[in-house]
Amino acid sequence: MSKQIFQPNAAFAADARIKNMDEYNALQNKAIEDYEGFWGDYAKEKLDWIEPFTNVLDESEAPFVKWFDGGKLNVSAQCIDRHLDARKNKAAIIFEGDRGDKQVITYLELYHEVNKFANLLKEDFGVQKGDRVVIYMPMIPEAAYAMLACARIGAIHSIVFGGFSSEALKDRIEDAAAKVVITADGAFRKEKPYMLKPVVDAAIDASSPVEKVLVVERNNEEVTWVEGRDYSYNELIKDKSTECEAEIMESEDPLFLLYTSGSTGKPKGVQHNSAGYILWAQMTMEWVFDVKENDTYWCTADIGWITGHTYIVYGPLAMGATTVMFEGVITYPDAGRPWKMVQDHRINQFYTAPTAIRVLHKMGEDEPAKYDLSSLKVLGTVGEPIDPPAWKWYYEEVGSSQCAIVDTYWQTETGGHIVSPLPGATPIKPACATLPLPGIIAEILDPATGEKTEVDETGYMCITRPWPSQIRGVWGDKERYVKSYYGDVQKDGKAVYFTGDGARYDEDGYITITGRTDDVINVSGHRMGTAEVEAAIKKHANVAEVAVVGKPHELKGEGIFAYIVLKSDEGVADEVAEMRAINTIIKQEIGNIAVCDDMVFAPGLPKTRSGKIMRRILRAIAKGEAITQDISTLEDPSIVAKIEAMVKG
Ligand code: PRX
Question: In order of start, what are the domains of the chain with their CATH numbers?
Answer without folding.
Answer: 78-87+106-260 (3.40.50.12780), 519-648 (3.30.300.30)
